[in-house]
Amino acid sequence: MGGGVGALLILADGRFPAGGHAHSGGAEAAVKAGRVHDPATLESYCRGRLHTAGLTAAGLAAAAAAGVDPLALDEAADARTPVPALRATARRLGRQLMRAARATWPSAELDALAAARPRGAHQPVVQGLAVRAAGLDPHAAAYVAAYESAGGPASAAVRLLSLDPFDATAVLARLAPEIDRIAVRAAEAAYRALDEGPGALPAAAAPLLDIAAEQHAAWPVRLFAS
Hints:
Layout: H1 5-12, H2 27-32, H3 39-66, H4 70-79, H5 84-104, H6 108-116, H7 123-133, H8 138-161, H9 165-196, H10 207-217
């Protein structure tokens, strides 16, 4: 990886002020539906999200870090996000991440994307440009997006289920080899996208996550924004 490992740790840290703490990555809806209720079902949920939404996000982030046109990637992210609730969430998170990234690693590319998408670009695209601004490579961008796809729900489950934080951390540790593989796969696709365009990037579907996101958005009372 180019750049410093310290920058990668900052970007992947849940305390980085990018707004992710307010979102459960679909875990709140999964808990209410009974699909997540203990460490084993949490691990299954996080694995499924990693290999679908996580892979797709990691590919987009890696491509942005590689230098693929971020506006084209933002359109590709829209096409890979079929439900309005998740598109709105991705842009809210992208807007918040943009503020944090521009304050931390000022970048003309981030400024240009913020001007072109004042209501927010998709979060993975912003992640990729933030990684690029921090001097890191596409592989690092893929790691940030892939880790967040599992780390967000695992963290939310601690609050939703009063789960032992040690159990949630153990879930992520068991998923670590798969996060590695997803990051490699996403980075390889990103390099192909430099020549072939965004169509070379993963577009893994997760229909149950999509349906649950739309239902969750209609709840009058909820702990997490998504």
